[in-house]
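Researcher: Sequence of RANBP9_10 follows. Predict its structure.
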Amino acid sequence: MAAISESSSTESLISSVQESVDRIKSLYPAVNEEETPLPKCWSQKDKFTCIGLSQNNLRVHYKGIGKAAKDAASVRATHPIPASCGIYYFEIKIISKGRDGYMGIGLSAQGVNMNRLPGWDKNSFGYHGDDGHSFCSSGSGQPYGPTFTTGDVIGCCVNMIDHTCFYTKNGINLGVAFTDLPINTLSLYPTVGLQTPGEVVEANFGQLPFIFDIEDYMKEWHMKTKLTIERFPVNDKKGEWQTALQRIVSTYLVHYGYCATAEAFSKSTGQSFDEDLASVKNRQRIQKLVLAGRMGEAIETAQELYPGLLEHNLNLLFMLKCRQFIEMVNGTDSEVRGPAIRSPKSQGSNRSSPNMSPVHHSLNSARNTPVGSRGSSPNRPIGVKGYCSGSTSQSSQINNQNSNCDLKPINEEEMNAANIAMNGKDIPVIESDDVDMCDNVIDDGKHVTNGTSLCVNGFSKNGDVCNNSEEMDIDNHSGKRHLCGGSQGAIEKMLVFGRELKAMHNQLKAQYGHNDPNEKMLQDAFSLVAYSDPWSSPMGYQLDPVQREKVCASLNSSILESYGLPKQPPLELVIAHSTECMKLMSKAAIGSCAFASVADYLR
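Model: Prediction complete. Tokens:
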């Protein structure tokens, strides 16, 4: 029984601590405590000797003789108030007023004398209980509020936005006590001071609910900040501001291949494209394949549509191949899903090997060979595939750089299209049955509009998880998922692919030296096969469809860079710039950053 009681008590304590942490976090969501910890208790070091601490360093009691002002003693909190709080609040409960009730509650900077009550010295501010006066860095106080005694709860609120401070008594706002606080130049600490025997106070830094409704006060300032942003005056007499906003939206749509929406938006606003629409559709094709987990087809399509791109970016190629290995484990890559799900065009080629890519032709020159117009090799017309077809051994694929390759014959129509592209005109859209361009259907049966399917990354539009049998093979009787979809042949393919991927990594390492990201990428991918159920393993996060998005973004950005276009859309740069500005505002102690979250405007 004693053991059960002790266990129950421990669980209750853990639950109470977690509630305190959650409550404080909800009060100050903009604070990064790894950089700027919040004050949560009194400091055992930053106090005068006559101060005693107990109750997890929240309760303060006076231990001196208390005959004169020289016997006063104060204690500061462990950390200063972060500017990213915007508004900070704490409450002090008077457990006992002691002999005379000479108590002070307020703020002070680091270095202020602790042998004094708060407010008496420079960079110190306090509200005293014996006379109700406020003291602003001076020994003479000003009438402010009522006195306080045993049983009262005094709150202190610091407004980092307008640099003011007010106090509350038993939940009632007493009005502004201090203005023009030096928040931009000084870090202020919650501080309490005691002077006569028997005085005991206890702090609540947010661990428990406050008596005063500070959340309502914060909401008021959140709305004020929001209105300040929304009502910021913009001179748009010539329409330049509106045009700039439209341009930002247009480039975002084009960047991510939302071609139908981009076309409609262009017609509505008159915005032109920096990229040919055909290229946008080509990128969209590739993105759909990557997001569907069909990495082998995505790599093949990228090499066909953008010759030279992967040859001159071997780290990107290696990333794609590592992701292909992961999709093989998942049973989603075309190479292990069987011929039924591959298009006739795809079935005729063997591209599962990492070394069937142009990597073994270009290792010696990848860093020095310039990328030609629109991402192609200078001496290679678009549409010509110079890779080997068929199966070769691992060693011959990796080491024989002079191996003979069968060039795919090209007809007159393809050559004309290639020459048009080389002359800077329209880029041909290579049609196939793998993925339709804009508003059609990927051949897995999902209807797609503007590159977004009804089931994206494993989730449906209503937020439910999609149980698509093509995403993973599941034993309907046991509910157990199988490696490579449960096919022995697919597992053998995966193992061969893994050996060749390792050989590719070794050659890259020998050619260019050690690469930490590539090393980790390969180790993480290979670690999946060490588990009987990789989906439930510590490394199983790699099999989450959301992990495809990073690979997709890297490939998409590289294609755009090869065209001389930004690898990030201006909209994302604006968001990143605004987010960084919020961090700089916090460092500069500009409190409004707490109520100007960029995320609020992205929902």
